[in-house]
Specification:
The chain has three helices and 16 strands. It is mainly beta. A hairpin with a 5-residue loop joins strand 6 and strand 7.
Length: 279
């Protein structure tokens, strides 16, 4: 049977096998290309209550021996009865703690990822460093150019210059001696779990917000350039003002010789149609 543990710098805050280490309402959220989050409440009677330190403490959630989440404490609000409400963000958020200096890069995708990770590691303490792991995202030409003139944080720059342009997924892998940063085209794993209401779906709701319902829609034509003249804004009018005119209006725009006109129950080319003034 699976068991779960929450550790704070290695000290047990929760262990589902042991009654003396418990927290209230633990909730973990893990998303693709997001930092992820973990929250829980801890009573002042807990033996390691005072071991939790904002920003510096590393919180780890394990399922058996597998790391599900690891990150830092961002908030630890106290209630009236001194219960701590602890909010954590995942280790990918460490990329927010470093910047990318102005650069120009030409080369492979893996080379750019390596440059970002190396620069990040040079700016942060040891526990926030990553080891470059697998890079399976590629460019069709295996050659990219990237540049930056400002000083964005590493998280933003990686999302803009890698994921935003090439796709792919960030993943952290944990071993005993390192945390590996992978940049993958896909995970390659398929979840075989069946979604079944009443079994692993305990609640389902559907709603429509009234604020999203429109009682009337007024289409407006494209804005007409007033050539710099001040005054009321002018808009195009007519059946095709909005770019979605009916079929007849669209047909009227075609050259006459390209139209097919139906006459006397048959179609004939516009070029064969009698024209005004023709003898």
């Amino acid at each position: 049977m699976a068991y779960y543990r929450i550790l704070c710098d290695g000290y047990p805050l929760m262990d589902t096998r042991l009654n003396e280490y418990t927290v209230t309402g633990p909730k973990c959220t893990v998303e693709l290309n997001k930092t992820g989050s973990l929250s829980f409440e801890i009573d002042p009677q807990h033996p390691y209550y005072d071991f939790i330190h904002k920003v510096s403490s590393v919180i780890t959630l394990l399922e058996g021996e597998e790391v599900v989440f690891q990150g830092r404490v961002m908030d630890d609000d106290l209630s009236f009865d001194k219960v701590k409400n602890v909010e954590c963000e995942g280790e990918l958020s460490y990329l927010l703690d470093s910047i990318v200096r102005p650069y120009t890069y030409e080369g492979s995708v893996e080379g750019l990822v390596s440059q970002f990770i190396t620069s990040h590691n040079e700016q942060v303490e040891a526990k926030k460093r990553f080891t470059l792991g697998q890079v399976t995202v590629t460019d069709p030409n295996d050659y990219i150019t990237r540049a930056a003139s400002a000083y964005p944080d590493t998280w933003s720059e990686f999302n803009d210059k890698c994921i935003g342009l090439l796709g792919g997924y960030m993943r952290l892998r944990y071993t005993e001696d390192a945390t590996y940063f992978d940049y993958l085209e896909n995970f390659g794993n398929v979840n075989q779990q069946v979604i079944d209401f009443g079994s692993n779906i305990l609640d389902l709701s559907k709603y429509v917000k009234g604020a999203d319902v429109a009682t009337r829609i007024i289409p407006l034509g494209a804005t007409i350039d007033n050539d710099g003249e001040a005054g009321e804004e002018k808009r195009a009018a007519g059946p095709d003002a909005h770019g979605f005119a009916g079929q007849e209006a669209a047909r009227a725009k075609r050259p006459l010789e390209a139209q097919q006109l139906r006459r006397d129950g048959r179609e004939e080319s516009g070029a064969d149609r009698p024209r005004a003034g023709a003898g």
